[in-house]
Amino acid sequence: VGPYVLVTPNETRRKQLLQSKLSFAKKELNDLEQWKKEHRPGPITLVPQRLGGNESEAQARQNQQMIFMQSKYQKKHKREDYVKAKKAAEEAEILKKKAIQREKAERLEVKKRQEEMQRREMLREDQKYKTNELLNRLDVGLPKSDSYQIANPGPESTAWKRSHAYKQALREDENRRLEEMKQEQQRKAELMEFKQKQEEETRTRALKNEQRRVNNAFLDRLQNKTQLNNIYQPGYTG
């Protein structure tokens, strides 16, 4: 750093400059105030006239209150309609799922019954085969001549008669059981058909009741809205 000279400030000169700046600023403020006074706007004079249309302030406020209440009720009804529609859709979906589950359960029950019937039929056929095989073995040792059986009735003839009667009883019992199974299947089919018709009628009735309730609610709201409009119409004396 090179040499430098320290100059002592002149306090008198500084004060003079500061005083001149203050006086100049004061003069500008005074000029501004004077200009504002000279250019101040004068009083406004307007011709009196009637404003607000043909209805009074009370009527205007009443109409405003009526519009506000109608808007409030409309929002409320829209919200209620949305909630009801959502609830009805959820109930319909639940009923649909229940119907699907019921049909699945019924099909599973029918399948189980069919499998049980097939199992019993196979068991009956096996028993019948074994019984016939036993009877055939018994018939092998019996004589084939009817004259000999008539002339010499003995233990063999008695055994043949018993085996023949037993076979006849087995056939009759089998026919009877087949007939009972057919009747049982017919009764079950009729019962299932009746149950399905009853469920369909119940679902149709529920849908009609829900539709009737929604229509009645809509008509009630429309009637209330019409009554409100009639009440607040000019000249209403009801």
Question: Can you walk through the features of this model?
Answer:
- With 238 residues, the protein is mostly helical.
- Helix content is 82%, strand content 0%.
- It is built from four helices and no strands.
- The chain has helices spanning 11-38, 57-140, 146-151, 155-231.
- The two termini are 105 Å apart.
- Residues 142-153 have low confidence and may be disordered.
Task: Produce the secondary structure layout.
Elements: H1 11-38, H2 57-140, H3 146-151, H4 155-231
What distinguishing features does this structure have?
elongated, 238 residues, single chain, 4 helices, mainly alpha
> Which spans of ≥5 residues are poorly predicted at pLDDT below 50?
142-153
The Cα radius of gyration reads 55 Å
**What's the average pLDDT?**
79
Q: How far apart, in Å, are the first and last alpha carbons?
A: 105 Å
